[in-house]
Specification:
- This protein has a domain at about 25-100.
- The chain is about 15% helix and about 45% strand.
- It has one helix at about 1-20, and strands at about 25-30, 30-35, 35-40, 45-65, 70-80, 90, 95-100.
- The longest helix is centred in the N-terminal third of the chain and has 20 residues, at about 1-20.
- The chain is globular.
- The protein starts with a helix and ends in a 21-residue tail after the last strand.
Amino acid sequence: MRFMKVLIATSLIALICAAQSEKLNLKTGTSTIEADSIERPVRFPSTIHLKGNVQIATKIVAQNTPLSLMIMVVRADEADYHEDSGEIEARGSVQVNYRDDPGGTKAGSVRIKLEKTNRLP
């Protein structure tokens, strides 16, 4: 009987851990979003709140003539994604990487400017 209780408890812990490790996915416009928690209001467009292991991949224009696209990948602890503008507000440990769009031509170099903001609660 005791062995059965231990087996059940171990199985429940394994199920909880497995459920917590799965990321949620969302596709909106040209962006693909992954996070542990995604909160999206019913109205469109809205601000999508993301928490835990956030990854947002979106296409950006690197060059207009000839058109050249890149894929920007933002990783963060938390982020807000604004569907109307495509703006990303990333918080915590943030990384931004760029790669060539496999369907497009090679894009040139891209520069990003990061600014520290002081927000009051």
